[in-house]
Amino acid sequence: MSSDDGVQIHQSRRLPDFLQSVNLKYVKLGYHYLITHLLKLCLIPLISIILIQASQMNPEDIHMLWLHLQYNLVIVIICSAILVFGSTVYIMSRPRSVYLVNFSCYKPPSHLKVKFSEFMEHSILTGDFDESSLQFQRKILERSGLGEETYAPEAMHSIPPTPSMGAAREEAEQVMFGALDNLFANTKIKPKDIGILVVNCSLFNPTPSLSAMIVNKYKLRGNIRSFNLGGMGCSAGVIAIDLAKDMLQVHRNTYAVVVSTENITQNWYFGNKKSMLIPNCLFRVGGSAVLLSNKASDRRLAKYKLVHVVRTHKGADDKAFKCVYQEQDDAGKTGVSLSKDLMAIAGGALKTNITTLGPLVLPISEQLLFFATLVCKKLFNAKMKPYIPDFKLAFDHFCIHAGGRAVIDELEKNLQLLPEHVEASRMTLHRFGNTSSSSIWYELAYIEAKGRMRKGNRVWHIAFGSGFKCNSAVWEALKHVTPSPKCPWEDCIDMYPVKIVT
User: pLDDT, tens digit, for every residue of 191-220?
Assistant: First the structure.
């Protein structure tokens, strides 16, 4: 071996230059601080000059100023009137604040837990799946990121399974009423005080509707504004929040309840088409109920304030429209098919969504860096990589829809997040599986149960759904948030995080 080879091996084993990376880190932090507080820093010299000038004024100068204002009384009155009128118009026209008073996630009874071995045993005993489909399901389960304590509906525990309209109604009632009972118990809000009700469930839409079932159960008032959203996928929870927010802008001093769930009983696939078997392995029982208010008096009681909602719909593109598609297979069996292009389409939808969200939440320093990189790319180097904004500067917590391990992995990579930022999503997927539109609320409950939510923290809810849609909601914590009674993580939070086998 030559001496040159020895030098190369020695250099390759050297540790990276940590001093340089640390210096660059502090340079970037200094840059962000400077740009963020640029206006304040520019005002300091101006305020200093005004104070110096004011300190040099004598009583005679003050008297002359007063006389000048007296002889210009008309101008003073006009300016004051304009100021008062402008302030009144601004206060009356600005959007009403929407507060999240509390929320609740349904935790199914322990007898509905489904272990992998039990899942596979039941799949074999149904007699509907061939050997190739069984091996495929086993492989998906092992790589899914799900744990051994997720929940399947009662009908799927029977041999053979007994899906029916009655069983589906029973699942819906258990989930929705379980979450609402806990919500009303924790908030002490009377059902009669609810003025707006929004329910979302994609695949189960009976008559009377799910929202009507809730109105009947809790004897809600006759003039309630109720809405039932169907077929909108896993991102419908954010859509429901957006609808409730809009309604709260119109109707004063009222409460809105948003119920998000998915029904599994009648939507299990009993065929052998691989793309339609994946939902069987990922989707599990779950649901949430959220109490929103536009009452100023509820600010001191509320946990969060809704800051932004940004919705992106890619349904105009045929590939995006059909990437999550309910259909029948060649044997006439109904299921939901997931396209191989799903991750690429989700990435495109996310890119569009954060292009709108970024300017609303990112510090000006990040926006300037992004704009400068974009200009340089256009003018000088077409192959230059675009600058990825650091969303960690805008948000303290990330609740990424627990649709599957691949979804979480891709967002962690593309948004340059740290493992702790996606911990809530991974652990929710492990403990409860994909609970569709309610998964982001199980994740928020996880963060609260860990005691990580501090006053002023910002939370980013990111959800994907059929159509294809990517929706974001931004919340700000109004206090140091503690978990509510009967939190779904109450009896197991100390066991998490767990190591996920890949």
Answer: 999 999 999 999 999 999 999 999 999 999
Residue in 410, 312, 309 with CA at minimum distance from that of residue 352: 312
Cβ atoms 389, 370 nearer than 8 A: yes
What is the spatial distance between Cα 440 and Cα 244, in angstroms, rounded to a whole number? 17
Tokens representing 408? Answer: 């979480």
Q: Which residues contact 486 (CB under 8 A, 6 or more apart)?
A: 104, 107, 182, 185, 186
Residue 277: in which H helix or E strand, if any?
helix 274-282
Q: Which residues are catalytic?
A: 234, 313, 397, 401, 430, 434
Element (H, E) at 34: helix 18-36
- The string of DSSP letters for 161-222 reads ----HHHHHHHHHHHHHHHHHHHHHHH---GGGEEEEEEE-SS---SS-HHHHHHHHHT--T
- Looking at residue 317, the DSSP 8-state letter turns out to be S
Q: In what order do the strands lie in the sheet with 255-261?
A: 225-229, 194-200, 255-261, 287-293, 99-105, 304-313, 469-477, 458-465, 397-400
- 318, amino acid identity: D
* Side chain identity at residue 270, one-letter code: F
Question: What are residue 311's phi and psi, to 5 degrees?
Answer: -120, 135
Closest CA to 292 of 219, 193, 202: 193
Sort 144 into a burial class: Cβ within 10 Å, 0-12 / 13-18 / 19+.
buried
For residue range 5-37, what is the model confidence (pLDDT) as tens digits?
A: 444 434 444 444 433 443 444 445 555 555 555
The amino acid occupying position 106 is: Y
